[in-house]
Amino acid sequence: MVSKTRDRLIEVARQLFVNKGVENTTMNDIAAASDKGRRTIYTYFKNKREIYNAVVESESNAIIGRLRQIVDSDLDPIEKLKKYLKKRFEVISATNPQAKTPYDRYRALFSRDARKVEKIYDMARQKEQDLFAELLNKGVESGFFDESQAKRLPAVMTLILLTTDHVKMNTFSMDDYDLEVLTDKVVDFVTTGIVRTKQPSIII
Question: Is 147 exposed, middle or buried (0-12, 13-18, 19+ CB in 10 A)?
Fold first, then answer.
């Protein structure tokens, strides 16, 4: 019950931040919209800053949760890597105000302040690094990925994603077609570079 109430307050605050902006949203607004009294809100959060931080944490977890599903799937490492990278680029595309994807909530949240959007992605990026390393390690252990290339790839992908994230969040100059072309080229490049020439036999 405690978790549900806290989650409800976070979601209500997120919606208000999207529609009114963080600065224009008060604790009273959150209390009224959630049908909870101010006393209940202060049981979970000392102030609006704490609610804001909880919303950022929740959004970053939502991004990582979708990637985690891929890492934990039963796909072979190669297909898993391809799907992971494509999903990661879908998250980037949601920063485009014209984007019509399931990830619009990430772009919409704090859309009036790019720095706040970047805070969500920065937090998610830290978690993502560990998740990506896990994916690569499993590929190496199963014999699908070249170990030396797998060690180099995180640095390469960090640079690619940082650059693309920045472009999408600050200039919006890349349309959906351009992003799709870039995604396919990056996925092909990465897959070709990391996959071992001789693949392990798969027993069906």
Answer: middle
